[in-house]
Amino acid sequence: MEGVDHLAHERNKSEFDVDAMKIVWAGSPHAFDVSDRISKLVASDPGFRKDNRSTLSRKELFKNTLRKAAYAWKTIVDLRLSEEEAAKLRFYVDEPAFTDLHWGMFIPAIKGQGTEEQQQKWLPLAYKMQIIGCYAQTELGHGSNVQGLETTATFDSQTDEFIIHSPTLTSSKWWPGGLGKVATHAIAYARLIVGGREHGVHGFIVQLRSLEDHSPLLGITVGDIGMKFGNGAYNTMDNGVLQFDHVLDVYSIAFASIAVMLWVSQVTCEGKYKQSDVPRQLVYGTMVYVRQTIVADASCALSRAVCIATRYSAVRRQFGSQNGGPETQVIDYKTQQSRLFPLLASAYAFRFIGEWLKWLYADVTQRLQANDFSTLPEAHACTAGLKSLTTTATADGIEECRKLCGGHGYLCSSGLPELFAVYVPACTYEGDNTVLLLQVARFLMKTVSQLGSRLSSKKPVGTIAYMTRVEHLMQCRCGVQRGFAELSADLVEAAVAHCQLIVVSKFIEKLQQEIPGKGVKQQLEVLCNIYALFLLHKHQGDFLSTGCITPKHAALANDELRSLYSQVRPNAIALVDAFNYTDHYLGSILGCYDGNVYPKLYEAAWKDPLNESVVPDGYHLYIRPLLKQEIRTARL
Ligand SMILES: CCCCCCCCCCCCCCC/C=C/C(=O)SCCNC(=O)CCNC(=O)[C@H](O)C(C)(C)COP(=O)(O)OP(=O)(O)OC[C@H]1O[C@@H](n2cnc3c(N)ncnc32)[C@H](O)[C@@H]1OP(=O)(O)O
Ligand SMILES: Cc1cc2nc3c(=O)[nH]c(=O)nc-3n(C[C@H](O)[C@H](O)[C@H](O)COP(=O)(O)OP(=O)(O)OC[C@H]3O[C@@H](n4cnc5c(N)ncnc54)[C@H](O)[C@@H]3O)c2cc1C
C-alpha cells in the first residue's frame, strides 16, 4: 500500500544515529545540506524525469538529453545556484552528457594548463556556456599511448599561427565526449612541430563549430561514432570523431606565442621553442585531476547499487516458511550477506579514499604552483592505481548487485542494468585500468627499497599485514632477473595489493578522527574490518606466503567475518539510508525507500509500450498465418 513503510521494521533495528551517518557520508553538514536540498529539487521537477529513457530511440534520447542539459542550465541561472550546487544538480540529473566533459575536463584543463591570459580569455566564456568544450586526446589509432598520437600542430612563424592537421585515418580524434554533435571548441592534443623539429604532445584550444549556426568550420570534419553498449545508458553522450584538414589555430593551450607560459613551454614570436624546467608530464595534469574525481564517482555508483540490492534483499522472501509463517528474508541467508556486505563496506571505503585523494590532489597542485614537483610521481601512482582499483571493484559490484536481486534485477525498472551500462566504461576511460596499474607497478619498482622503512613505522597490525604483502609480492618479482614486460602480469598484482593497502590504511585513519553520532564510529569500524578481512580472505594465499599470518589466523579471520556480517545485519537498511538517495536518483523499483516493490513492479509492467495493445503489432502478419497453417506433414 502506498504511504506504508514496508521497511519500517528494518529501520527500527538500527543501532546508530542515521542522521549523523548521513553527515559522515556527505562529508560535512554543509555538504549534506547542499546534496539533500538539490537532490530533492531535481526529484520534484518533472523536467528531470528519467523513467522513460529505455523506450526512446537514440535520436529521441539524445534530443531529450539536450533538453535536460538546457533545462538544468536554466534552473542553475534562474535559481542563482553556486558552482557547488550546480555540480550537485548535474550529478542528480544523472544523465551522461556533453556537460560532463565541458565542466569535468575542458574547464579544468584550461585552469590547470592555460596561461593567465588564456584563462582570462576562455574561462568566462566557458563558465557562461557561451562556448561548449570537449577534451580531444584519444585517436582512432591511439588512446593509451598518448606519446603515439599522430595529430600535428605546426607553428607558422610567418602568421604566428598553429596549423592543426590529421595526417592519417588513425590520427582521427575518436571517443571525445560531447565532440560528436555539440562541442563548439576542443582542447585537442597534437604533436608540436616548430621550425621542422618535433616537441612531443601538447594541448591546443581549437574552435570546431560556428557560434552562429553550429556548422563545422573550414577544415573540420566532425560527427558521432555511433551506438555504444546498452540501449539508453551512455548513448545520451555524443562521443565523436574529428578530422582536421590543415586547420589554422591561434589558441594553443600550452603555447601562446605572445605570452610567457607559466607551465609547460612557450613558442616565441620568432618561432623559438623554449622548454621550461617543469616535468613534461604536466601536460597529463587533467587526467590526474579526472582520475581522482572518478574515485569519488565509484563510491556513488557502488553505493547506489548496494542501496538497491540491500533494500530488495530485506523485502524479498524465499523459502524457510515455518508452519505457514512468512518465508525467510533473503538478506538473512549467510551467502547473501557474504556477497552483499563486502560491497556495502567497499562503498564506504571508496567514499573515504575519495576524500583523501581529493586532499592529495589539492596538495600536489599547491606544491606545483610553488615549483615543488616532489610528490608528483606519488600523486600520479595513487590517482592511477586507485582509479583502476575502485572502478574495477565498482563495475563488478554493480553486476553482483544485479545478481543479488535475482530475476527482477534484470528488469530495467530495477535500475541496475542501466547503472551497469553507464558505469562500466569507467574501467577504460581516463586510462585503461591495466595500463594504469602498470604505471603503479613502475612506481613501486622505483620505490620498493623504501617499502621496508615504511614497515618499521608504528602502524596498526592490519596495515602491517597489508604492507608485508606488497613488499613480499614486489620482492618475489624484483628478485627474479627478468624484464618488467616479462613480469608485468605479476607486478600488476602487486600494484593492486598496494592500492588495497592504501584503501585499508586510509579507512583506519578515518576512524582515528572525531566522528560524532551515537554508534556511528562503531558501525564504521565494523565496515572497515569487513573490508580488510574480506580482502585478506580473498587473497589469503598472498598473506600466508608472507608468513605474516598463519592458516589458523586465516581461519579465525573467516570466523570473524561471519560475526561481523551478523553485526551489520540489523543496521544494513540504515547504513544504505545514510546515502540519502531519493527514489528519483536511484531510479529503481527494487530499491524504493518504502520497500513497496511488488505493486510497483506490476504497475510498471503495464506501462511498457508493448502493452499498449492486447494483440501485438505483427500478429496478423506473422503469427496468425502460423497458427492457421494447414498441418501438411503427418509427423507433426
Ligand atoms: C553514478 C553512476 C554513473 C557514474 C559515472 C558518471 C557517468 C557520466 C560521467 C561522464 C564523465 C566521464 C569523464 C571521463 C571521460 C573520458 C575522458 C578520457 O578518457 S580522456 C583520455 C584519457 N586517456 C588516458 O588516460 C591515456 C592513458 N595513458 C597515459 O596516461 C600515458 O600514455 C601513460 C602514463 C600510460 C604513459 O605515459 P608516457 O609519457 O608514454 O610514458 P611513461 O610511462 O614512460 O611515463 C613517463 C614518466 O611520466 C610519468 N607519468 C606518466 N603519466 C603521468 C601523469 N599523469 N602525471 C605525472 N607523471 C606521469 C611516469 O610515471 C614516468 O615517470 P618516470 O619517473 O620516468 O618513471
Ligand atoms: C565511454 C568512453 C568515453 C571516453 N571519453 C573520452 C574523452 O572524452 N576524451 C578522450 O580523449 N578519450 C575518451 N575516451 C577514450 C579513452 O580514454 C580510451 O579508450 C582509453 O584511454 C583506453 O585507450 P585505448 O582505447 O587505446 O585502449 P588500448 O590501449 O588499445 O587497450 C586495449 C587493450 O590493450 C591493453 N594494453 C594497451 N597497452 C598496453 C601495455 N603497454 N601493456 C599491457 N597491456 C596494454 C589494454 O590493457 C587493453 O586490454 C573515452 C572512452 C570511452 C569508452
From TrEMBL:
One GO MF term attached to the UniProt entry: acyl-CoA oxidase activity
Ranges of residues in domain Acyl-CoA oxidase C-alpha1: 284-445
Compartment(s): Peroxisome
Keyword Flavoprotein: yes
Binding residues for FAD: T138, G177
InterPro entries linked to this entry: ACOX_C_alpha1, Acyl-CoA_ox_N, Acyl-CoA_Oxase/DH_mid-dom_sf, Acyl-CoA_oxidase, Acyl-CoA_oxidase_C, AcylCo_DH-like_C, AcylCoA_DH/ox_N_sf, AcylCoA_DH/oxidase_NM_dom_sf
GO cellular component, one term: peroxisome
Signal peptide (from-to): none
Keyword ATP-binding belongs to the record: no
Residues annotated as the enzyme's active site: E430
Protein name, UniProt field: Acyl-coenzyme A oxidase
Pfam families: ACOX, ACOX_C_alpha1, Acyl-CoA_ox_N
Keyword terms: FAD, Fatty acid metabolism, Flavoprotein, Lipid metabolism, Oxidoreductase, Peroxisome
UniProt similarity note: Belongs to the acyl-CoA oxidase family.
Limits of the Acyl-CoA oxidase C-terminal domain: 471-628
Cofactor: FAD
SUPFAM superfamilies xrefs: Acyl-CoA dehydrogenase C-terminal domain-like, Acyl-CoA dehydrogenase NM domain-like
Domain Acyl-coenzyme A oxidase N-terminal: 17-132
Gene Ontology biological process terms from the UniProt entry: fatty acid beta-oxidation using acyl-CoA oxidase; lipid homeostasis; long-chain fatty acid metabolic process
